[in-house]
Write a structure and sequence with these properties.
By secondary structure, the chain is α/β, with parallel strands linked by helices. The chain has a single domain, classed as Rossmann fold. It is built from 9 helices and 12 strands.
Length: 280
């Protein structure tokens, strides 16, 4: 019980530290959140619109996203970000938040979980210039996907990662479709080859996802890197992989970790064309 209360307060702190929201709006959301938990609701007013979710406590981590968008904006000037690829969209927390602050961006969302995909669609019904795709990204084929209906944001190709914040007793196992974003698939889905920002939040499958993006181009990658769970990888190795996949120079420009023991760290990488040095 004490641990649960501490988690709630930690997320409350996240939204209260958000520099891009009025104090009144922060306080109202916190109040609405506790009411929603008490009444076991599945929707809440968030950033001026109704946001739908699945589990009783799913509105709690929603409090991270305004500060996350501010973190991005501080680093990359999000107002100039026109095309965004959102990989691991879940029910739309990132895309919904980004569009609330920067409505001019075109966002392409990929989410493999077909059982929560209707919630993503519902949240994006009144959001312009967002396209949704019910696929995971990686090696072409079908994969087993694990998730908890009470906490679908932790859904993963690795069963153990679903339990990273505590044992889930409602674990589900489903088969999902996975594709590679090669030129043929880009043409088929009418997706551009070049993005200003690629966001990846895939609970341990970062390596497979990055390898599937060969042929794309982008300026920045906002990547949740697993450092203490299945699929973990060193940040230096991630940078080498990004450089091989995108054939660009890679620089880590910022990073943050929600807490000291968090299983992942959020990193922003800048990608720049390599200089060609003339031979003597």
């Amino acid at each position: 019980m004490v641990s649960k209360i501490m988690d709630l307060l930690r997320y409350d702190r996240e939204i209260m530290l958000s520099p891009n929201m009025r104090l009144e709006d922060k306080l109202l959301f916190v109040i609405r959140k506790y009411i929603a938990i008490g009444l076991n609701k599945r929707k809440i007013k968030y950033l001026g619109k109704t946001f739908y979710y699945d589990g009783r406590f799913s509105a709690v981590p929603l409090q991270m996203y305004p500060r996350e968008i501010a973190f991005l904006d501080h680093t990359i000037n999000a107002s100039e970000t026109k095309t965004v690829l959102d990989i691991g969209a879940n029910i739309g927390q990132f895309a919904f938040s980004l569009k609330s602050f920067f409505p001019n961006a075109d966002v392409f969302c990929f989410e493999p979980n077909k059982e929560i995909f209707p919630i993503l669609e519902k949240n994006m019904t009144h959001v312009d210039n967002v396209k949704l795709f019910n696929y995971g990204l990686g090696k072409n084929g079908k994969r087993t996907f694990y998730y908890s209906p009470s906490s679908s944001g932790l859904g993963s190709f690795y069963q153990e990662n679903v339990h990273q914040f505590g044992k889930k007793h409602d674990l589900k196992e489903i088969i999902v479709n996975v594709i590679e974003l090669n030129q043929e698939m880009l043409n088929k889905l009418h997706i551009p080859r070049r993005f200003d920002l690629i966001k990846i939040d895939v609970e341990g499958a970062e390596i497979e996802v990055l390898k599937s993006l060969k042929g794309l181009d982008c300026n920045y990658i906002f990547l949740e890197i697993s450092v203490n769970r299945k699929g973990k990888i060193e940040i230096t190795e991630v940078m080498k992989l990004i450089e091989r996949v995108f054939e660009k120079k890679v620089t880590l420009v910022d990073s943050k970790r929600l807490s000291k023991g968090a299983p992942s760290v959020d990193c922003i990488f800048r990608l720049e064309a390599k200089r060609i040095c003339a031979s003597d």
